[in-house]
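quick one, 390 residues, struct below
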Amino acid sequence: MDKLWNSNYIKVMVANFSLFFAFYLLAPLLPIYLSECFGAGKDMIGIVLSGYTVTALLSRPFSGFLVDSFDRKRMLLFFFALFFVFFAGYLAAGSLLLFAIVRTLHGGPFGALTVANSTVAVDVLPSSRRNEGIGYYGLSNNLAMAFAPSIAIAIYHFTSSFHLLFWLALVVAGIGMAVDSTVHLPKRKIIQDKKPISFDRFFLIKGWLLALNMVFFGFCFGVLQNYLAIYSKEVMGITGGTGVFFMLLSVGLIMARLVGSKSLRKGKLTKNAAEGTILSSAAYAIFVLCPNEVGYYLSPLLLGLGNGRVWPAFMNMMIQMGTNNQRGTANSTLLVSWDLGIGIGVLAGGLMAEFVGYRMAFMMVAVAQLLGTLLFFCATRQFFFSRRIG
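---
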């Protein structure tokens, strides 16, 4: 059997951990930084932070096109260098306007880098272990999400220094870039398509139903991620449990990657996806139907187990619906779909909470997850079988 844990794959995993660790070091504390250092109100904080997501979303289709059309390693290092430099911008930003500009622009290289690095991960995996390898690849972001926020909060608690966190994120990103620079990619022939650039160079049209299905799941997570703390406080009366919630979510994600690897190795993509969608549906149902501590702390574990199976399965399915020269486009299509779902969830979640309350808003999320699950079983699964080429 071909070797899965080759040196290049390990390096790409380490680099991916570094970029997400740097990201999650700042994410939980930026609202506090904007409030304390610039006196920004809640509405302004939301505007400043949402710019990152918007530019990440916009950059991904173009980055997929670039990594498919040009030398992938050069594109990877170019995106990583931009991602690294922008951390220095936070240190230099002396006003809210400058910080907002830096933060918004930083989303571009982040979105592009996640596409490029995951595409390179596919390139360095032996074809016989690709399904399994993509499953393990996600462990690197899951581990970063599990540890970075807690470390950041601890550092801030003992030092009260945001600049120290900015410097640490800069250093960690630099380490990731240095590691990626040592990756050796197999030679591939870059096909110069003489046809006019069309929409399918940026979006894998063959996988449109998988993308639509992922929008449903992203929508649910977008509402949960952004409104969990206030829902917990106002509806459940739970304060200070958000950190534990996301820690349990990370544990579930990690367990799913480890447990599901054998099934992925055998090519059972739809089986993994099916089990994942059912577990995630159960998680959201328990969250809204059991508004107590048992439901609150059981649901993230189940959600992690569910999403941890859905993501590698859907990524492998999307890649198998394109050619080798469409891997970047396939990756960006799935990530854009997830981001679009999250964006809709953030906007719709606020509107639903305003008109029907947070409890009813999360009930609607549970229904949306169920609809996404039914879509997979009724249409998406057969759609994949009839159109895959990989």
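The CA atoms of residues 264 and 323 lie 20 Å apart.
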